[in-house]
């Protein structure tokens, strides 16, 4: 079985992530969407919420498993799970510059290869950070996130300006 790991914090998962995961699912028999926690980051959604959103969103795709990464190195996680590849989506050359040293280190540590999937043009601007910022400032993010995320962000409507009376 060809198994790959698609890691990320997915805070929140967005349509750019979904596009890369769906394309990975067409290349591998199984794709583990490995939800990570970086304790140096501040998250909007806790680990369980991020797992739930990913599971709800990806339930219709065949060959997808969603689970937490846990502690330790991603390369070791891949070795323990029998994954031969890590899948990473790339939006720009700066993503490549950031990911390449990690890909090389992961291969040297456990032999796991990294497969880079370039994002579709209409998703190049998406990041979880940007989505959270736009939503917090009152913007409509409904075209960029799945329904499970929109529900958790709120009713789908941007938050009201606290200084505005409605």
Written overview of the protein:
By secondary structure, this protein is of the alpha/beta class. The protein contains six helices and five strands. It has helices at residues 15-27, 47-58, 74-81, 93-110, 128-136, 147-153, and strands at 3-8, 30-35, 64-68, 85-90, 113-118. Helix 3 packs across helix 4 (93-110).
> Unreliable segments (pLDDT under 50, ≥5 consecutive)?
155-166
Radius of gyration: 16 Å
Proportion of β residues?
15-25%
* Broad structural category: alpha/beta
**Average pLDDT over all residues:** 92
Number of helices: 6
- Percent in helix: 40-55%
- Largest sheet, described in full? 5 strands, parallel
| Shape type | globular
Between the first and last Cα atoms, what is the distance in angstroms? Answer: 57 Å
Q: What is the total tally of β strands?
A: 5
The sequence of SSEs as H and E is EHEHEHEHEHH
Which strands sit side by side, in order, in the main sheet?
3-2-1-4-5
Structural key phrases:
single chain; 166 residues; alpha/beta; 5 strands
Write the layout of secondary structure elements.
Elements: E1 3-8, H1 15-27, E2 30-35, H2 47-58, E3 64-68, H3 74-81, E4 85-90, H4 93-110, E5 113-118, H5 128-136, H6 147-153
Parallel strand pairs: 1-2, 1-4, 2-3, 4-5
Summarize the structure.
This protein has helices at residues 15-27, 47-58, 74-81, 93-110, 128-136, 147-153; strands spanning 3-8, 30-35, 64-68, 85-90, 113-118.
């Amino acid at each position: 079985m060809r198994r790959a790991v698609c890691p990320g914090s997915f805070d929140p998962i967005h349509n750019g992530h979904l596009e890369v995961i769906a394309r990975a699912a067409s290349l591998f028999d199984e794709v583990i969407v490995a939800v990570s926690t970086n304790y140096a980051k501040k998250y909007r959604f806790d680990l369980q919420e991020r797992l739930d959103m990913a599971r709800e969103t990806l339930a219709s795709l065949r060959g997808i498993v969603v689970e937490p990464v846990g502690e330790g190195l991603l390369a070791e996680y891949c070795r323990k799970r029998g994954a031969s590849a890590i899948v990473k989506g790339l939006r720009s050359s700066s993503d490549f510059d950031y990911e390449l040293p990690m890909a090389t280190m992961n291969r040297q540590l456990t032999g796991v290869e990294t497969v880079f999937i370039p994002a579709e043009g209409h998703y190049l601007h998406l990041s979880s950070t940007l989505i959270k910022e736009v939503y917090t400032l009152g913007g409509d993010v409904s075209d960029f996130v799945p329904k499970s995320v929109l529900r958790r962000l709120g009713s789908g409507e941007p938050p009201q300006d606290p200084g505005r009376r409605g």
